[in-house]
Design a protein that fits this description.
By secondary structure, the chain is α/β, with parallel strands linked by helices. The termini are close together.
């Protein structure tokens, strides 16, 4: 699964607020809802927050993969958010999160959900990717990097 195939330029948000985890997750949920990909930003936020309470989705190296499943979704959605100031996600390495991959999958597709999470995790752990992504401010440039690096 190529990382660039999971998202598209209009789902790259380079200017997320960085006050705290709740605020950044709400902002991501609202933007995904604003793109018409989910019915309710508030419902998406609640699902993301419930998942976050089970354990941090901060995987280290400045990257988090907040994720959940939603009823009524026809296909998986991956959005990329950048919070250059950093957000405390309680990641195991203690580093603030600056790059977020929001994954929302149909509730009836657990295999797809796991494949997406695995693809992002492999990409994140294979190099200094967070820094490369943060150096780009243009959503199309971030998307292009994900396309190139996923090969």
């Amino acid at each position: 699964m190529l990382l660039g195939s999971l998202t598209r330029p209009e789902l790259v948000f380079p200017d997320l607020p960085a006050a705290d985890r709740r605020e950044v997750l709400q902002a991501l949920a609202d933007r995904v809802a604003g793109a018409g990909l989910v019915k309710s930003g508030d419902e998406l936020f609640q699902k993301l927050w419930e998942r976050e309470q089970l354990g941090s989705t901060g995987i280290g190296a400045g990257i988090a993969i907040p994720h959940c499943k939603l009823v009524g979704l026809s296909q998986g959605v991956v959005a990329v958010g950048l919070a250059p100031e950093g957000v405390d996600f309680g990641a195991a390495d203690g580093k603030p999160v600056k790059v977020l991959f929001l994954v929302v999958s149909p509730s009836g597709s657990p295999a797809e959900h796991l494949q997406i999470l695995a693809a992002i995790s492999r990409w994140a752990r294979s190099g200094q990717h967070a820094e490369k992504v943060l150096a780009l401010r243009d959503p199309a440039a971030v998307y292009d990097l994900l396309q190139d690096e996923g090969r």
